């Protein structure tokens, strides 16, 4: 196995810097790059033991495979599961221990003997006030080498970068988020804690971060990928109930009344209604129409029943998929992914929160969104499951957007956040 030139350059950057971040587009091979740098680091004696922190599914299904592929000489233990299983992995005489973010509070209570740590999907530590962040921050002081890997550094705004930078090196943006906000933002609404970047703040922050960051040159990388075709498919539906919920914050169905108690709940209800259903107060779904499912079925057959990845947001959407498409499956284990990549699954339903990071599903090339997430990170990570290094075919990304609904608002917001991400990365180059 051999890295591509841009991956070799990134691995050299990590190796040369004790504190570093690799900011690379989804699917660029960050795991392989980091493992190559780790192999050299451990082999040359600059580190003896490495802790890798990743999302659970990535820790379980990606790192074990990638270690065997890119650094088979390294001894490895997976620190997940029960406390006893985690303790055994932590005590094992191995060079690399991989755990998940949910274990950080437990990990902070254990004696640690690591001199290097790698954060896969560094954005999971964007909140310096979170319990996991605080627990880790207390015990990380003696870990000299810290690397962060991410494909979505500013996924939801410039404010997100502070926590990610602080856990790598506090000298980047300082120790206090309050001071960071005061310097680069102005408070738009003190009651709700809404902060807006000051003019020029993005460029100033990126300039401070630049010495610690390797940014994959997108032009070089993207030239190695096949085209990504994003197709907006407008869905026409009766908007009577949708408009009523938006106007009155309630709906009436016979003897049943569905009430939204806050603006946030209204937004969620509108997302549900844009997909043809709504949950009542008992979390029972009331189905209003099947327009999106009908269009999905047409799309499925137009593509000659080619394997299709379907992203959903609500449990009712998954239930409806299984009812309409009896062969629809969900990811159960690694064998599901192998069967998908081999083309043996017609339709695979996945949620971007649970399956958006790290999974290599590039064996196929068509995906459909029943509903979009508000998070740019989840959207880009999800698209990157198919559109990534090694994909041999054009990737088709279909968005089912109900006309006159919040679907288009979400899509517009994702575009705005993408622009911010692209500007931020450009400033770091």
Record keyword descriptors for this entry.
Rossmann fold, 429 residues, 19 strands, alpha/beta, seven-stranded parallel sheet, six-stranded parallel sheet, globular
Give a verbal description of the structure:
The structure is a single chain. The protein is an alpha/beta fold. The protein has two domains: 218 residues, Rossmann fold, CATH 3.40.50.10810; 201 residues, Rossmann fold, CATH 3.40.50.300. It is built from 19 helices and 19 strands. It has a seven-stranded parallel beta sheet with strand order 3-4-2-5-6-1-9, sandwiched between helices. A six-stranded parallel beta sheet has the order 10-19-18-15-17-16, with helices on both faces. A two-stranded antiparallel sheet has the order 7-8. Helix 1 crosses helix 2. It is globular and about 70 Å long. It starts with a helix and ends with a helix. The mean pLDDT is 88.
